[in-house]
Design a protein that fits this description.
globular, 2 domains
Length: about 290
């Protein structure tokens, strides 16, 4: 076998996600576990020697067994430790169940998971062991619906709303728009919190600045924070904490002890933004 043929064969056993036209991340595939096309997107599950099982939607890495805790813990716990009495929780997106598993250890009454793609839930139940017990929990309700449509129709009020969306393309595109956040705010209980992932501060800084502009008109507290996520673009991710009453440093309770990444020191440090973000965001500066 020639070197060229060998290289082609090896490349066929890699998943490549491009973040620019000339750079990105690759995962060498140990096993192809699942590939299908749902009504909304292409769904793949592969196994990598280092990261374990990985879920991809339309070729983009959503979660891996090895590093999911960075993202899910940082999305969940800043709000859950600061809300005075979180009882009713809404998760929009997050069909892999990683965020839901972070929510349920708290003394909540109700967790509603709204996922547009039934097949994502079915595939995740098969390949990611944390989802099944979350869905069996009596406090959990699973609703298959577009997140925007659910928000427009629901009469329920929520203490915390988590927006665990994928990139602003395809079925998640409308979860990144100003009027969607306006509708979410109407679903909040008094003193409610919204937390959303807002993308890579390295590759998608401009979209973060645009979000900041309209969020500042909707919420009194607009607090961006950051965390490493090894398999996401740039290995560095941005989130936003939104509220009219709750400040993210007003801690009400300790996080669960078994967490792998998040703790109170990480919580405070995460809101300390690098200069290239801080200089362009008019969000609440918690350190001034």
């Amino acid at each position: 076998m020639t070197d060229d043929n060998k290289n082609k064969e090896e490349a066929s056993y890699e998943i490549r996600e491009y973040h620019t036209r000339s750079s990105g991340i690759f995962l060498k595939v140990k096993n192809f576990l699942h590939k299908s096309k749902s009504q909304y997107q292409e769904i793949e599950v592969i196994e990598n020697e280092y990261f374990g099982k990985a879920l991809l939607l339309d070729g983009l890495i959503q979660t891996t067994e090895k590093d999911e805790y960075f993202y899910h813990e940082m999305l969940a716990h800043p709000a859950l430790i600061t809300h005075p009495f979180p009882q009713n929780i809404l998760v929009i997106g997050g069909g892999d169940g990683g965020l839901l598993k972070e929510v349920l250890p708290y003394s909540i009454k109700y967790a509603c998971l709204v996922e547009i793609d039934r097949e994502v839930i079915e595939v995740s139940q098969k390949y990611f062991p944390w989802l099944k017990p979350c869905l069996r929990d009596q406090r959990t309700e699973l609703i298959f619906s577009d997140g925007r449509e659910f928000i427009e129709k629901t009469t329920k009020k929520f203490d915390i709303v988590f927006i665990d969306s994928s990139d602003p393309v395809g079925p998640s595109a409308n979860l990144h728009e100003s009027d969607f956040y306006e509708k979410i705010k109407k679903c909040l209980s008094p003193g409610g919190i919204v937390v959303a992932q807002v993308g890579s501060p390295f590759y998608k800084a401009e979209s973060i600045y645009e979000k900041n502009d309209f969020l500042m008109k909707l919420f009194k507290m607009v607090c961006f924070y950051v965390s490493p996520v090894p398999t996401y673009p740039g290995g560095y991710w941005c989130f936003v904490f939104l509220s009219d009453e709750i400040k993210p440093f007003d801690i009400k309770r300790n996080p669960p002890k078994e967490l792998k990444y998040f703790n109170l020191h990480i919580h405070r440090a995460a809101f300390s933004l690098p200069n290239f973000l801080r200089d362009k965001l008019e969000s609440q500066d918690l350190l001034d």
